[in-house]
Amino acid sequence: MSVWTRRAWSPYAAGAALGVVATISMAAFHKPLSGSGAWMQIGGYLGRAVAPDNLFFDRVVGRGFTYEIALLVGMFLGALASALASGSFAVRMVPDIGWRGSVLERWLVVFFGTALIELAAGIAGGCTASLAISGGGAMAPGAFVFMAGMFAGGIPVAWWVSR
Amino acid sequence: MISVILALLVGVAFGVVLQKGQLGRYDVIVGVFRFADLTVLKVLVTGVGVAMLGLQSLRSLGVIATVPLPATHLAAQALGGVMFGVGMALAGFCPGTVAIGAGEGRLDNVVAGSLGITTGALVFGALYRRIVPRLAALGDLGQLDFARLLDASPWLVVALYWECALLLFYILERRRARSLQSA
Questions:
Q1: How many Cα atoms sit within 13 Å of A112 on the Cβ side?
Q2: Which residues of chain B are within 8 Å of residue A128 when distances are taken between CB atoms?
Q3: Residue B2 has pLDDT above 90, yes or no
Q4: Is residue A70 classed exposed, middle or buried when 0-12, 13-18 and 19+ CB atoms within 10 A define those classes?
Q5: How far is CA B103 from the centre of its chain?
Q6: With contacts defined as CB-CB under 8 Å, which chain A residues touch B24?
Q7: pTM given for the model
Q8: Whether the predicted pLDDT of B179 surpasses 90
Q9: What is the DSSP string of B115-136?
Q10: What value does the CA radius of gyration of chain A take, rounded to a whole number of Å?
Q11: How far apart are CA A113 and CA B165, in angstroms?
Q12: DSSP character for A86?
């Protein structure tokens, strides 16, 4: 079985490869890896339609096919190719492992959970990719504060959900 | 045009790595917060360490002059981190891995995730002027890294980080070997 058709890599191998990708992004493009940045831009198109003079949507977020949008599109394509190659691709409405509620419950939880995540990424100034991994690689103390907060927030909620 | 293709390729590599690392899975993301599956922790700690080593090597060799360094705002990053963790434990993904799950055919990511994240971006934009300047001023250390904070060589920071990381991996793997033995 080749590296490409394997369903999962060792977390250490995946982590090392992730570190190399982050290094390339920051050294060659002078930009962190990012997930939340592209979504802020997508929100910006809607935000300007509703509130044209909003400072954030008008001045702060980027427009057009930026590096962040290219990353998000590329991530989807890369994951799709990788999942197809290993036979992990399957159209599904809820996670096949670990979810015990209904489809409606899942979609509502995802909606509120992801809205909170993106708001949080805005407040912190980054997400797992841009602040934790890229910022950590740049040795920024804020990256480690963010990661500590992430576990402090996630641990009680995960235990409460799985009661 | 070439820079767009290169950026897309970085994204593709990022996507492949996260998919092979199993970070598109709900049970894997939530598992780290329940200490049931430590994949996320291992990927995160290794990824940060390799990026640290890679960037510091390139700097020492003179290949790059600077690294994009996020500023440290203690209050904003602590509060944002806690909120982020709560959302991550609920949804089972983050702004980037929503695309990984989408690539695996997960419609909860594609539909509910896209709508939720975009809503979060809109809420942040609406609150931006009221919350960002105030929060950023609390515990503002500015743009500095651990080497400047500790007034130490960056290589010492890299070495200390890896010492802690390797100790953590040793403990995790020994624990795993023991639980496999007893099972």
A1: 8
A2: 44, 84, 88, 94-97
A3: no
A4: buried
A5: 20
A6: 79, 83
A7: 0.96
A8: no
A9: HHHHHHHHHHHHHHHHHHHHHH
A10: 18
A11: 30
A12: H
Q: What is the pLDDT of residue B100?
A: 97
Token match 């995960």: residue? A158
What is the token pair recorded at A157?
């909620």
Contacts (Cβ under 8 Å, ≥6 apart) of B107: A91, A92, A93
Token pair belonging to B147: 């080497």
pLDDT digits (tens, 9 = 90+) for B91-116: 999 899 999 999 999 999 999 999 99
Residue B84 to residue A120, Cβ atoms within 8 A: yes
Read off the tokens for A126.
Answer: 């980054």
Could you tell me where the DSSP H helices lie in chain B? 2-20, 26-33, 39-60, 74-91, 97-103, 107, 114-137, 146-150, 154-182
Give residue A113's Cα distance to chain centre: 13
In angstroms, the separation between the Cα of residue B104 and the nearest Cα of chain A is 5
Q: Residue written as tokens 């912190």?
A: A124
- Predicted ipTM of the assembly: 0.96
Q: pLDDT per residue over A74-129, tens digit each?
A: 999 999 999 999 999 999 999 999 998 999 999 999 999 999 999 999 999 999 99
The H or E element containing residue A49 is helix A36-50
Name the minimum distance, in Å, from the CA of A44 to any CA of chain B.
7
| Strand locations in chain B (E) | 72-73, 140-142
pLDDT in tens, B135-159: 999 999 999 999 999 999 999 999 9
